[in-house]
Amino acid sequence: MIWNNCYGHFCPEDGNLEIGNDRIRKVMRLKDGSIATESIEDLENSVRWTGDGHLWQRCPVLEPDEVPAVGWETTVCDDLPGTRPHLCGVLTLTGRMGRVWMEYRVFPRIPFVFSQTFVERESPAGSNSQAGEAVLEATGIESQYQNQNEENLFCSADTLDCIPLGRRHLKLETLTFQDKTDRHDSLLERQTVPLYPRGQLEREGNLFHLMDYPHGDSLLLVKHAPTASSALHRLGPDLMAEGNRYAALLGSGIDYEHLPAGRVPCYASAVGVAKTAAIWDAFWAYSTAFSTGDPRHSLFMMSNTWGDRSQDSAVCEEFLLAELEEAHRLGIQILQIDDGWQKGVTANSKQHTGGVWEGYYQFDPDFWQVNPDRFPRGLEPVVERARDYGVEMGLWFSPDSSREFANVERDIETLWGLFQRYGIRYFKLDGVKIRSKLCEMRFIQLLSTLSRRSGGEIRFNLDVTAEDRFGYLYQPQYGTLFVENRYTDFGNYYPHNTFRNLWSLASVLPARRLQMELLNPRRNPHRYEGMPFPPAAYDMDYLFATVMPANPLFWMELSHLAPEDAAALQPLTALYHTWAPELFDARVIPIGDCPDGMQFSGYCCLSPDKRQGHLLLFREETEPAEHSFRLPVSLDGTGLTVLYQSAPAEIQPQGEEIRVAFSRQRSFVWLRFA
Prior knowledge:
By secondary structure, this protein is of the alpha+beta class. The protein folds into three domains: about 1-290, Beta-galactosidase, Chain A, domain 5; about 300-580, Aldolase class I (TIM Barrel); about 585-674, Immunoglobulin-like, CATH 2.60.40. The protein has eleven helices and 38 strands. Helix 10 (about 540-545) packs parallel to helix 11. The radius of gyration is 26 Å and the shape is globular. The two termini are about 40 Å apart.
């Protein structure tokens, strides 16, 4: 089948399988119950990644000696909320003991091929012996390679993909994400090492960038899975490189000895190609195809009152009406009510003891009814006032993790009822505990069912601050990531650290997938006495600007903002409304130095055609007042407009640099070029 320059072909006679588009071709070979990747081709640059033999990947749940029945089907998928239309090819293998589905997805003009395997066993658990195999089966793989006995080289069932590299001079850059951000504050780490041709290298991570540095060619391996601290059934590293010959992505997330019933998903993977200078542009395009964003808003501003640590004690109709008035004044699109709107009491409640963090329906069958004491007239008056102001309401919700999400159907109907009755589209999902593959499957069922049933209208804010959850790269299509909880009450909110985390994550992830917070800096100044970089040293417009390329999260009670702080925000939030569509479509590229409170730093928000964009340039607490920022694009031939400056500054563009003389510390300028 060929669609929009995408294609997928399978030849049952020789087992050859090809899938790709006009920029990438992945060629595989099926033999009995095993599959091998023969080559990855960068068609735009005429580069072929291949080897001199096959490294076979055994298909799980199939018997090693059987020849399964094989089916192949290609379809155009244009009805998946949050995902752009694409070609999907599915290879189905049916054996005596079970069935395997290998799904491949490719988007027009994007040089990546996505792969995911699903398995279903028909035999009793424990009959398949493959689960305990080593990652690369034989310790003598070196001697086998020397003997050229390639047909006997196998990866285990825990392998996601194995790519031949072709004996190049290679460097490997490993990118490792951290979630559970209540305990971590360095959310992306990068490390680069050369590959030794006759060595073996193991790495833990999520993205693996292989660079043929003499020729400037790159291959990017993506492990679509939770972070290492949250992934299920880890047997070893995430990547193993056999010299400069093969690189295997590992970790299916499945315990094949204890498969749940039904069609069970492995973690997914992807492979992409481009010139080294363009590989992250290509990955950004791929990532945005899998997370297209909100169908009604582009970027959005959201407020959530939990950041002021009243927890649920302030939540009531009167309080929220006051919050709505401030949200309307500031132009904030969404006001989200955190824990406390519901009748049931959680373990986070400030007013009660004995609350729960799962098992909600068992604790109280009416747990998720609107709290009648705090909202004697229901949520209707709050929702109606929000509509008058042009503000949407959002809600916090905690899916019931108990008994492996046994109450998933009740949770689905609860959320669907809130959507139908009140028009609630934004649900912050918290308290999620993915303890097993069945938990994962049921949680995906909740996300998928509500997304499809609402035609993509329901969007989720997926909390990654604690517990074992999906993280940054697994199931990215369902909404935004709620990245951090920081509080002045605990003295752990430092604006430059939030700035740093967005700056780092935006180097590889679409910033529009992230919600990054700003707090009321005037609260709890005593927590920062004698410390550098206290929040109170920063102006509100500066705090907003550091997170503006993402979806700014007002992690505060808006009605308690100082009038002068609210006034300082209004001109900037008005400009944000004007330019949010351009920022949404832009690739956010970090420029300057990594923020640490004492740097010149910023963002270049570049349009896909690279003809226009925005610059946000910051001076932290530096002694020099001037700095030349290197840019990823030349400003020659463009017009430069100053949209906003927090303090007077002198600006001198020249080619791929722009020099700014800031008049004071902790100030910024916002420029647009076209």
